[in-house]
Amino acid sequence: MSGNTFGKLFSVTTFGESHGVALGAIVDGCPPGIEISEQALQVELDRRRPGSSRHTTQRKEADEVKILSGVFEGKTTGTSIGLLIENTDQRSKDYSKIKDQFRPAHADYTYHHKYGHRDYRGGGRSSARETAMRVAAGAIAKKVLAGHGIQVRGYMSQLGPIEIDFKSWKSVEQNAFFCPDPDRVAELEAYMDQLRRDQDSIGAEITVIADGVPVGLGEPVFDRLDAELAHGLMSINAVKGIEIGAGFKSVTQRGSEHRDELTPEGFLSNQAGGILGGISSGQPIVARIALKPTSSITTPGRSIDVHGAPVEVITKGRHDPCVGIRATPIAEAMMAITLLDHLLRHRGQNGDVSVGTPKLGQR
Amino acid sequence: MSGNTFGKLFSVTTFGESHGVALGAIVDGCPPGIEISEQALQVELDRRRPGSSRHTTQRKEADEVKILSGVFEGKTTGTSIGLLIENTDQRSKDYSKIKDQFRPAHADYTYHHKYGHRDYRGGGRSSARETAMRVAAGAIAKKVLAGHGIQVRGYMSQLGPIEIDFKSWKSVEQNAFFCPDPDRVAELEAYMDQLRRDQDSIGAEITVIADGVPVGLGEPVFDRLDAELAHGLMSINAVKGIEIGAGFKSVTQRGSEHRDELTPEGFLSNQAGGILGGISSGQPIVARIALKPTSSITTPGRSIDVHGAPVEVITKGRHDPCVGIRATPIAEAMMAITLLDHLLRHRGQNGDVSVGTPKLGQR
Amino acid sequence: MSGNTFGKLFSVTTFGESHGVALGAIVDGCPPGIEISEQALQVELDRRRPGSSRHTTQRKEADEVKILSGVFEGKTTGTSIGLLIENTDQRSKDYSKIKDQFRPAHADYTYHHKYGHRDYRGGGRSSARETAMRVAAGAIAKKVLAGHGIQVRGYMSQLGPIEIDFKSWKSVEQNAFFCPDPDRVAELEAYMDQLRRDQDSIGAEITVIADGVPVGLGEPVFDRLDAELAHGLMSINAVKGIEIGAGFKSVTQRGSEHRDELTPEGFLSNQAGGILGGISSGQPIVARIALKPTSSITTPGRSIDVHGAPVEVITKGRHDPCVGIRATPIAEAMMAITLLDHLLRHRGQNGDVSVGTPKLGQR
Amino acid sequence: MSGNTFGKLFSVTTFGESHGVALGAIVDGCPPGIEISEQALQVELDRRRPGSSRHTTQRKEADEVKILSGVFEGKTTGTSIGLLIENTDQRSKDYSKIKDQFRPAHADYTYHHKYGHRDYRGGGRSSARETAMRVAAGAIAKKVLAGHGIQVRGYMSQLGPIEIDFKSWKSVEQNAFFCPDPDRVAELEAYMDQLRRDQDSIGAEITVIADGVPVGLGEPVFDRLDAELAHGLMSINAVKGIEIGAGFKSVTQRGSEHRDELTPEGFLSNQAGGILGGISSGQPIVARIALKPTSSITTPGRSIDVHGAPVEVITKGRHDPCVGIRATPIAEAMMAITLLDHLLRHRGQNGDVSVGTPKLGQR
């Protein structure tokens, strides 16, 4: 219930530092009787795994997840699920020289001041490595959601200046970028190669979509579905912006343009991104997140050390030049966890009646 | 702890429908010994009050807030604070004809399907009228924060197509738009007048800034300060997007451009928006929100009724043609509540040491 | 989510001081479509109301509850329910002389040291008057539970030295003591009359029973049903002990004696009090609470004032010589709230399957 | 935030089944800079460890705890602490025959009906084995509390019919019973030997005391310190009753007898058990718990199987004939966790002022 737990009925609590012994999570509130295997979780983890292409960190982590409890004879028992990933490729020596320095735009500075004592190796708890456990927990959520006909998928919709139109879900799984247009992959690769030569990093935008969500999920006024989605997505490392549906485009839209008209056959558009008044409308939930460029670059930058003296910082080590590239599975995981938590909360308050009942219209 | 509570140590729970008897809130966890008066809360409520200009709803609500508990002899006692605003200008007849219709882009549809039974008068619980209690609770949070040298202020940074540069905080309080540039107010008024003639509505963007925030607020990994801010801000009616610092601009930024370099005198820029790794950096916290155009317009729109039959909807009644105009105090309130909750949580875990201690650099 | 909220899915948040303007509560997470009226809540409040017999405080409070939101056309809408009781009979002058003194065994001392600033009138927030809102919220919970065939009832099982065997529920509602044996009422009255002459107060024991609870409520390992019941019941003013089923008798019981054997027709005994492993077994839930004698007596006692100087304290004012007499409706309320919260949580995680399904055995 | 988390600012979330791969916990919100080692945790775990005397289960578990995160260079970092104990001595074959039977007074019946699918081996999640993680987490809490001068200790105050007066803390650590009187140990051993011959089990009472607690911990009205203690203690397997201070004795006490009078030198008695109005008074916190006899005995008992058919159950395997014998460290752990959570919550709302300041009186 402190800072490392997300969700109320279906909740995920995590621990683990980049260069610690292991990462772990406790998934609580999972319905019983769901088929879950380490293999199934591993499929999701492998989508996020470092070292899988030359465009991501060269750290080689097997990221093998173990299920320690809560699953018996292949099915969940309804009790808390313990998950563990042991760290195997920690090269702490890479980081020792920056032990007393604050890398610009990194959490070094704030962790140091908040806690006084920090694990500086590889960013410690602030490392994106923590997100592995979100993906593992999200895989469980996805499995439960699938039983309710809900599917959560994401893709890279922009890499730096390169905007990418959605072409197919099939394409997304066939390249290292989660790029939904197979014809743009070469362009992305060329961009990343140039970026590496420039010793720089770049931001990205990820779009996440949930299909099959019934009408009714979300608890106004503070635990609106969009508010909790924003919470979950913004809690991902490097995320600086969230949009639901039309997002910032709504600033310049007129009401006559933004409103999604309804007919007996369903909504005529989806500017709302599937959420009205904080409650799912039965249309697809559409969210976008902006990820900043990683701050770990080899181009020298000005900073200070823990004593306040100026230093020049060059971040070596094995880093992602675009954290957005591996962010798609993480964003999917946070959306899946949020949706499942809300599905259970809705069912708790309302019973099963409205969830899954035929919708007046559809999307 | 259900959907109508926000915050963990400093928490706000609200109730109330647009046309019900009253709106209310319970503010829990407020530190004792803080001077609070109904007059002070009223000042903030009056900033949000409907009917204060011709550009907002013509509903005339006094919005007089009463403190029912938790304050004794002018000071908080540390016990829960009860707040109440009685509704005085409910004209339910305005709404009776749309009782069985779903207004497009409104929460009618989702409330109907989620709950089965709803107060259709004026949007009931889904009405923006609910935000009055947030402003009242936020006024208490602002007062406590002021004692820690923290100030939360907001302004309109865009109205439809009109982008507004920040000129002065003084200007913000001198016009009905919370416009920070006195030279642009006439333009905004002209735009709104034309909009009314067009029988349409428009979106807006609000910027909220917190100054004086110490290093250290925020609880990774899920209760990051930015994640909770996103939760709080996205829970405001009509918000469809959130940015922290560079926000969506970070998508096209390079790492060398985005990173805020540090010198012994402080940070050289604030692309981060005052939050690194989910923890406040001591720089100003900067957030922006996108508000959609209100869906209550008099231009006819296609919809269906509760039986699924097609209807044409014209929303009469007294509505804001731009909900963004009155959103500034609400956004400030949510940021203030979030910051105070995190200040108390930080103090709980860490003691007073790091909060408020001299920062290495500054903003 | 601070100290004044109880429950996770069905939650109750309260405010209000003994001599403040009003008491209030927000009931959140109540299922929609439940018939609720002020009259129905009033029936429960009247059972707890002061001044209803000569054996309780002579304070005359109408305790008229108003529903301010969440109920529309007689039925709950699923949104948060605001409840209010205005204080009408506050005679603050009664208390002014003890403003700087700590009454022995009272919360004066601890509130003073915790908060620094306190409403000393009538105990302020620490007064048992606060429990009126629990009874109102509990009345809502009881109504929802009734729809699931669950009934929560309590009675006085001991008044000081007088142990009372259960005879009938009918008797409970026919005397001021909630005494389940009509033949013992005269004895209780005589005891209380003597006590008043002695200028003293006395403890009591209340038994609360829930019938019709399905198998399956309770969330191990920390949110066990018995653990949450203990939390709720111990949070009632003056409660110093809790027992479930055999309670402290289990200390001297052997396993062969304590265990409730099972047959195809059901359990053969109920030493467990209806809870096994923290989960309801389908048998009646049985809890007992010990209430201490009120500390407000007119027999002089030694104490100190806020400056640490010794004083002699005589508590005048209008007090209950046995707080246990009015505690039955409060204990019922806390059990009802706990059960409903757990029913909703169970339904959220597990769906409706196991709740309410035919039980193998019976109670 | 589901059922397996305890505490709000300092929180403990656990997982693990009796015969699963491992037990684990995530301790969140621990203040940074606290010296913690696996060795120190092991000391507490060894106090609870099975197989350490002939009077407890003969299961031989090393119960070696590993710290997986949150501690760096010997000190806590303020981030979540991962703890793990691998199960090494699971003999599942012992339990296979009772797979389809419900042992009387066991959680088999309720887990089966709640979840449908359960790990029947050794009680699965309902096994007392789960409490090992509470002890590990409690050891961390104790360490932090020690830094505030707070010490939590417990002892066995009754074993079946044998009441034990407190003689010394030294004695408690010198026998397998946590018996505070060295002269009574032989009697306890003889009693247990006879019990084994009788193939039966017995209940017990444990007393837990916290010394050095400052005035001010506890958050009325629902999160009172006593209410949360009751929650934590009742969540321990086999606990059926809780008392604070005078407990059930208060039922027959008069106000003049129960009230703890105050003098400039401090309180003259401690009937309150160190808690007034739900807030610690600065006196020792005194709680007692009643533990039922274990239900796993070899004396045959009547029960049914999952199909509803009658069966005779004899529970073989390796069980504690008195679960109370090993309960002292667990009760201490739950009290320590509760106190630390409240110390942090108090510090969050009130700052450090009142905690630890000289008390007017003292105990």
Automatic annotation (TrEMBL), chains A, B, C, D:
Its cofactor is FMNH2. It catalyses: 5-O-(1-carboxyvinyl)-3-phosphoshikimate = chorismate + phosphate. Keywords: Amino-acid biosynthesis, Aromatic amino acid biosynthesis, FAD, Flavoprotein, FMN, Lyase, NADP. Its EC number is 4.2.3.5. Pathway: Metabolic intermediate biosynthesis; chorismate biosynthesis; chorismate from D-erythrose 4-phosphate and phosphoenolpyruvate: step 7/7. FMN binds at R125, S126, S127, N237, A238, G277, K292, P293, T294, S295, S296, R318. Reduced FMN (FMNH(2)). The keyword Nucleotide-binding does not apply. NADP(+) binds at R48, R54. Pfam families: Chorismate_synt. Homotetramer. NCBIfam families: aroC (TIGR00033), PRK05382.1 (NF003793). Belongs to the chorismate synthase family. This reaction introduces a second double bond into the aromatic ring system. This is Chorismate synthase. It comes from Vreelandella malpeensis. The gene is aroC.
